[in-house]
Amino acid sequence: MPATPDTFAIGAFARAAGVNVETIRFYQRKRLLPEPPRPPGGIRRYGNAEVARVKFIKSAQRLGFSLDEVAQLLRLEDGTHCGEAAGRAALRLADVRARLADLTRMDAALAALVKQCGTRGGSVSCPLIAALHAC
Length: 135
What we know:
Blueprint: H1 10-17, H2 21-29, H3 48-62, H4 67-75, H5 82-119, H6 127-134
Helix pairs in contact: 1-3
């Protein structure tokens, strides 16, 4: 791909995608991002499609998808596998909800322990420390 106003060397590509150069190289090693050919005596060039792909990967990661799951989603990207993609998203949603339930339980337990700490004084054992020893 020859240098044009809408192609980027790797540094500019990384900036346009909002990541660093090492992230680009990592995604290439993981086969999430194709490595463009290097023209003889030239540098590899990346286009807007690659920028969009990296942004897709980062968006999926923010939603909790692992890189292996992102690779699976990328394979479904042609639009004919919407049901399969929805199934994968449903699994991710169930995992998020389970984590939220765990976090809610942790919140309640910690809030109760913090409250107990505020009611004790002097040389009485700290309820928070005692509860952690009991686990």
